[in-house]
Every structure is written in structure tokens, then in C-alpha cells.
Amino acid sequence: MPALELDPTGEVITERQLHRQRTRAGWRIGDARHVDLVRYVAWLVQVRHAPRPEPDLAAAAPDLAEAAQGAAALGSRGKQMAGHGQKITRKQEALIAALLTESTYAAAAVKAGIGQTTLYR
């Protein structure tokens, strides 16, 4: 059964979404048994228009570089294990490392030396 059904075409918000939002809002939108619709909408507007913190890219960069080096090291093993596994090429290794370090697909494709269309294959 929908939590809020204001439109006959279907539910507007699920029980799970309402529960999550009530948990986040606490007593600001009503008491334990009732939700004040005006307070609830005001809280939603406040949350929606609150400024979002800027991500700290400087702190994430060393982790990405380390992950890229690890991925490149895994891909460039001298011996492959026996079996049906497919070996990856040098360009594929470079692309994996670039995808881990660059912020966009286009930048990763340029860094790996391949076209952006080839990246999606």
C-alpha cells in the first residue's frame, strides 16, 4: 500500500523512502504518530537547497594513483596462470590505469592513447 497517494496513477513516495526521510528529519516534521505535511515539505525544500560540500580531490588522488599502479602491476604479470583466462593487452592495461586515475572517460581515453569510442567496447 502506498504511503502517500496523491495521484490516482500510482504512489508518490514509498514506505521505505518515507521511513528514511522521517528518520533523517526526526521530530522536525511531526510526532511519533503523525506527519505535519507543511513541515515535511518545508524540510524537503531545505534539504534539497542546502549547499553541498565540495569533494576533497587532493585527498583522493594518492589513493587513485596507488590503485592504478596496483592494477597495472596485476595486469603486467610476467607469467599467466594456466587455464582459459584471456590475457589483456598493453593498451588494455594502460586504459585500466587511466580509468582509475582520470576523472572522465574522455581524459582516460586520451591518456591511454585510444579513441573514446574504443573505450566503450
Give a structural overview.
- With 121 residues, the chain is mainly alpha-helical.
- It is 55% helix and 0% strand.
- It is built from six helices and no strands.
- The chain is elongated and about 60 Å long.
- The mean pLDDT is 75.
Largest sheet descriptor: none
Provide the gyration radius in Å: 24 Å
Order of helices and strands: HHHHHH
Mean pLDDT: 75
Could you say which overall geometry the principal axes of the C-alpha atoms support?
Answer: elongated
Low-confidence stretches: none
Assembly context of the chains: single chain
Helix/strand class? mainly alpha
Quote the beta fraction: under 5%
N-to-C span: 43 Å
Count of extended strands: 0
Q: How helical, in percent, are the residues?
A: 40-55%
Total DSSP helices: 6
